[in-house]
Design goal:
Two copies of one chain form a homodimer. The first copy, chain A, is an alpha/beta fold and about 550 residues long. Helices cover about 30% and strands about 25% of the residues of chain A. Chain A is built from 18 helices and 25 strands. Chain A has a seven-stranded mixed β-sheet. In chain A, strand 12 (about 280-285), helix 10 (about 285-295) and strand 13 form a beta-alpha-beta unit. In chain A, helix 1 packs across helix 8 (about 245-255) and helix 7 (about 205-220) crosses helix 8 (about 245-255). The first copy, chain A, is globular, with a radius of gyration of 25 Å. The N and C termini of chain A lie far apart (about 60 Å). At the A-B interface, helix 1, helix 7, strand 16 and helix 14 of A face helix 1, helix 7, strand 16 and helix 14 of B.
Chain lengths: ~550, ~550
């Protein structure tokens, strides 16, 4: 086969590697006077942002940080976090955004695994740090962050100083070098249900491309205008969580006013939204629920606030409740491994014209349509793409220019992630005739029975419609004949009773309607007082599977073979 | 110095080269039923667009075209041109967009220089082709494009067939390969005032990046919303002219309805704008003037039509006249060498709130603000960046990820273009305190006198305000003491007279106001009956400079040393 034509640039041509520093060029050019706001404490403009980023870079260099070094951050959402997201990678170092909600042991593991050299730490986390720092194997120094007027730099740990004092001592100019666009810029850890946290990482090139596509998706899709340059942005997804979904980079590139709320306090979030005129945020469903439910929220009108929802499925009840308060919710889909943007809700022009607002909500809460440059398939266990019929389930696999290229120092898990050259999301979904992706389950929770995949989430949803059932969890348990069979735990409504026959009759209706197949009806159901949950309130299916045998022999349980 | 961290991807990870084929993924996913319209002749949806691109790719392969081959197109703006802009590069070949307005000799030169192997040619250009094809050195075949119901494939040239017949014979599926993102995708020629046309070229990577940033700029800047996904797009800049400014790629990526007008006929353009609901176009000032002046335009209201203006300076009179007809004009700046996007007009939020609509027009007609990822400076002859004071003039030099990396097979001119690692635009400009770039002149027309740069355009503008002067041209002529001195040709208003003193007094006012310095007042002025013009009606400064000595001795001329 002949070759494509690749020409040598003329010797003086400037090679233009895609680097995070270039995202800083335009925001200040468009709106130099736009503000970056931190709570009710700090307020400055884009010129100052640029200067402070240069000062921070100079301070880091003076602290011995250079290209390839890993600098970790333990901080709530702040202007300082934004500065660090630029300054650290712009000197060729790597920002490790520590998830401060992990257990102390997990934080220790990630600090050592990432090979952190310096940690920027908010003084709120000093007690935590003091309990674990002697287990750190690579950390040489700390840098103190504080909201206090008179911050005290601890003497018993090797601190290079306090953030504001260090910045003040440095020049507001810094000549940021060019380097390979494939240099790692960011890293953070994702926790599964088993094993150690896994490190994902993203390069300068990947973050620039992610930023450009996210700008286009949030700004140029008429279906769902989310953030144009006059919007006012406040993240309500922690900045240590997948680059706050990449939006701080987008906002900075476009010169958007940005509001950083620090540690999330519902009343303060409402206060900031109102006072600063915030029009665009993003968060997980639990957070918007918390905000809408807080005392201050009952007194205000949120009209004009667009909130992108990710992380967990967005249900219609929440979307409608938010709408009543003036908040327009819409869903997007992505994960730590994917930078994160993969899909966003989209409503076609015809549907916008023909469907009621309420009917459109069904599309606004779906994972949605893959964004530009994302290739997405739903595949069966053999890797065959499933039809776009809204029914055939399979695992979502993707390709895009911004996916982690491995788990750091985990060759086997990396190859699992990228089996067959597609990134395996572990999410099970359908795609309908309009191309709309709907998440059905996590693949580890799907029940593989008799060659069919049964969604545990869907089955739980249908069982929960039984009038006597108040809570339900379904897992797959081993079966010699069918590989796995569904096993359900149910909590019964007070004063009610359930028996196998009534559950079977209840589910058979959905079999007849074609919503589930007959293999989905659980063979075994155990009635329990309560269902095991994780620390964040999700069903703990790992524990349920582990304790399956106990349930079978448990008191108050009944076995059925419906 | 230590190194940035570059990690090997896990072996199975998918490397994701940036390729034009990926721009095709999303449009159809968002709006499969959106239309591509060609005049009143063709109308199909995005699914069909995708199929036709695959069919064309298969037809090209069947015609012996493979990676690295150059396929030229001689065609007016059409759905077929759009298909070619995708299909040709997607098989690894290079699309050469021939400027059909060049002279036959120039076309021959570009065909041979680009090494065209196949030419897609609209039957309108067959007479032209028949006059020059025997001078072609690399062309092996032709492919006929026709609007006729019964196209006749000429027998006397090696035609592989007719476009629609060839597409019909092919499969609507094509497996487009991955290859190096630095492969050349497009090429075309730019003509200066001297020498042969020069070939510029752009890679897949460059076009993907240009598309993403252009999408963001046109869609997400609140100052100037130009094209969101629900807009309806019709180019009125020929597709052979710098990728129709890149907008067909943007429109296709976002699933925008597209209208292609064929050969430009003012009444038809108005008809299409009205009938198809076109909301976004782009063109040079002369074309919008032609459209607004045509008969059909007098009967309609263009309300909602946004037109981006580039190619030449947009003057305020035209912008206001267009506004009266409902057309919102705004300027952008770029050139053949730059893909083309460099700058776009931007009005800050404060100015939008505080200035009248008419005052804002001054900003909407300026070259504007550099777009994201573009680095731009205005430099003096030694390469020193000039201050942002709105007065200091210098040449615009740029860096961006989408600039031609050389002139094809022109090593010396390539090094001139990229001297000191910055692309030299040849445009002279100022940047004001708000960062707004205003083009002042072409560098070859600037008058370098006594170490100062005098803008010939500005001087012409000021002289034209003299009540007795109806037309004026200013060029620099050699001067032993000052390097150059301004020399002016003037045409006097009927019934009026000018003398040196009155011109001097007129200009001295602007010296006192600080708009020009005293060196700008021309030493020599010649009164003439008419001023030499180029074929497109621009002042022919090359000829004026060449004939300078004649003017000095010419009849009716007067010499002054004001």
């Amino acid at each position: 086969m002949s070759q494509t034509r690749i020409l040598e640039p003329t010797p003086s041509a400037h090679p233009y590697p895609l680097l995070i520093k270039q995202l800083l060029l335009s925001g200040r050019r468009y709106e130099a006077n736009r503000e970056i706001v931190y709570r009710d404490q700090v307020r400055y403009d884009y010129n100052t942002l640029n200067e402070r980023i240069a000062r921070l870079a100079n301070a880091l260099k003076a602290s011995g940080i250079g290209p390839g070094d890993v600098v970790a951050v333990m901080e709530w959402d702040s202007h300082r976090y934004l500065e660090a997201m630029f300054a650290i990678p712009m000197i060729g170092a790597i920002i490790h955004t520590i998830n401060v909600r992990l257990s102390p042991d997990q934080i220790t593991y990630t600090v050592n695994h990432a090979e952190d050299k310096l940690i920027l730490v908010n003084d709120e986390f000093l007690p935590l740090l003091k309990g674990i720092h002697d287990q750190f194997t690579t950390v040489e120094n700390y840098l103190l962050i504080s909201d206090s007027d008179n911050p005290q730099v601890p003497a018993d740990l090797p601190f290079v100083g306090e953030y504001e004092a260090l910045l003040a001592a440095q020049s507001p100019d810094c000549d940021f070098p060019d380097f390979d666009e494939n240099s790692v810029a960011t890293t953070f850890y994702t926790t599964g249900t088993t094993g150690n946290p896994k490190g994902v990482y993203f390069t300068h090139r990947q973050l620039v491309l992610h930023t450009l596509v996210e700008t286009a998706v949030m700004g140029a899709l008429s279906s769902n205008p989310l953030m144009n340059s006059d919007d006012v942005y406040m993240p309500v997804t922690p900045m240590f969580h997948v680059h706050a979904w990449g939006v701080p980079y987008v906002a900075t590139m476009m010169g958007v006013k940005q509001v950083y709320p620090g540690r999330y306090e519902p009343d303060l979030l409402v206060e900031l939204q109102q006072r600063e005129g915030v029009t665009y945020s993003h968060c997980v469903p639990a957070i918007i629920q918390m905000i809408l439910g807080c005392a201050r929220a009952q007194e205000v009108d949120f009209k004009g606030w667009k909130v992108l929802i990710g992380g967990s499925a967005l249900n219609k009840g929440l979307a409608l409740a938010a709408q009543d308060k003036g908040v327009q919710l819409s869903a997007a889909y992505g994960m730590s491994e994917t930078c994160p943007l993969l899909c966003g809700a989209y409503v076609t022009e015809v549907m916008r014209e023909e469907l009621s607002d309420e009917a459109q909500v069904d599309y606004r809460i779906a994972a949605g349509t893959p964004v530009p440059l994302v290739q997405l398939q739903v595949v069966d266990a053999e890797g065959n793409a499933q039809p776009h019929d809204g029914v055939s389930v399979g695992e979502i696999v993707v390709r895009a220019p911004w996916l982690t290229q491995a788990y750091f120092k985990e060759p086997e898990k990396s190859e699992e992630l990228w089996a067959n050259g597609w990134l395996h999301t572990g999410d099970v979904a359908t795609i309908d005739g309009l191309g709309v992706v709907k998440i059905r389950d996590r693949i580890k929770d799907v029940i593989k029975t008799g060659g069919e995949w049964v969604s545990s989430l869907e089955l739980e949803g249908l069982m929960s419609l039984h009038p006597a059932i108040s809570e339900v969890a379904v897992v797959g348990v081993p079966d010699p004949q069918w590989d796995e069979r569904p096993f359900a735990l149910v909590v019964v409504q007070p004063g009610e009773a359930v028996d196998a026959t009534s559950v079977k009759e209840h589910l058979k209706r959905y079999v007849d309607e074609g919503r589930i197949n007959k293999w989905a009806i659980p063979t075994q159901i155990a009635v329990v007082e309560s269902i095991p949950k994780t620390s964040v309130g999700k069903l703990n299916k790992k524990q349920i599977r582990a304790e399956y045998a106990d349930y079978l022999n448990g008191e108050g349980a009944f076995l059925s073979s419906v």
